[in-house]
Design the sequence.
């Protein structure tokens, strides 16, 4: 299977992909959307869902930001930065929605900067150190495929705000997945060294895959995407050997706390600062 065939197949149904960051678009995804929690929707459960999705995005965006000035080429640096900004934009909207419906009135800064690592509910895959470029590509492929499958379902959620956020995110995540798939094929089917590094990256990511499939029935869909890409790249399918514990329960690796310290340091040192 060629690189172009993988790209075209994964892009099917997502031709109108958005390749720019949330903050640079001209459309407000929440314009005119009713913010009242619909009857039959549990506000507490909705808030928890929004926070977990936002935590995934925020932590992933922080890891992607580490590639600034370090990516193999300037074009890839810009691409990774924009993917990170897309995720940051999703996190901001989701945190804001959580604060609206959980009764606390917290804003996005309160969620992002003033919670400790044990309060975060992101999946552990997001918080792992960036490693080399191959690792970041494998992680991005898995994460974007999984998140895209979720958001496609959430676009039909009964809460119109979450549905609107998800619908906007689907366009972005489709591009994230395509970008990662292209690089996965290029590296897997490239030199002996790039193939070796991709194999190593798969082994590093594999223990964290099981955690992704506990909340939603998207496993078959995600596995199908991973199989398609790995076959084109001449790589084996990663074997799921799940580690015990879950980031959704606040059980994180030792890598999250220092990552958050870097993210939150200025806000905590100057909590009353404004632009």
Sequence:
């Amino acid at each position: 299977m060629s690189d172009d065939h993988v790209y075209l197949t994964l892009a099917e149904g997502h031709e109108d992909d958005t390749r720019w960051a949330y903050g640079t678009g001209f459309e407000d995804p929440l314009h005119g959307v009713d913010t009242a929690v619909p009857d039959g929707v549990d506000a507490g459960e909705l808030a928890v869902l929004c926070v977990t999705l936002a935590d995934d995005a925020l932590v992933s965006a922080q890891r992607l930001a580490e590639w600034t000035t370090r990516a193999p080429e300037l074009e890839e640096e810009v691409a990774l930065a924009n993917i990170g900004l897309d995720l940051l934009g999703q996190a901001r909207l989701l945190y804001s929605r959580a604060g609206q419906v959980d009764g606390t009135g917290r804003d996005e800064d309160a969620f992002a900067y003033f919670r400790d690592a044990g309060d975060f509910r992101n999946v552990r895959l997001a918080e792992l150190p960036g490693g080399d470029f191959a690792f970041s590509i494998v992680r991005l492929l898995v994460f974007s495929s999984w998140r895209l499958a979720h958001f496609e379902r959430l676009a039909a959620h009964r809460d119109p705000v979450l549905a609107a956020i998800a619908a906007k995110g689907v366009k972005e995540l489709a591009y994230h997945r395509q970008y990662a798939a292209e690089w996965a094929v290029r590296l897997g089917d490239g030199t002996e060294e790039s193939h070796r590094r991709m194999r190593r990256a798969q082994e590093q990511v594999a223990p964290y895959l099981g955690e992704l499939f506990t909340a939603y029935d998207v496993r078959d869909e995600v596995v199908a995407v991973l199989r398609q890409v790995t076959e084109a790249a001449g790589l084996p399918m990663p074997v799921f050997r799940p580690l015990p514990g879950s980031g959704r329960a606040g059980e994180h690796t030792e890598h999250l706390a220092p990552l958050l310290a870097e993210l939150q340091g200025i806000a905590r040192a100057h909590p009353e600062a404004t632009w």
Remarks:
- The chain is about 60% helix and 0% strand.
- Confidence is low (pLDDT under 50) at residues 17-24.
- The radius of gyration is 18 Å.
- Residues 197 and 253 are 23 Å apart (CA to CA).
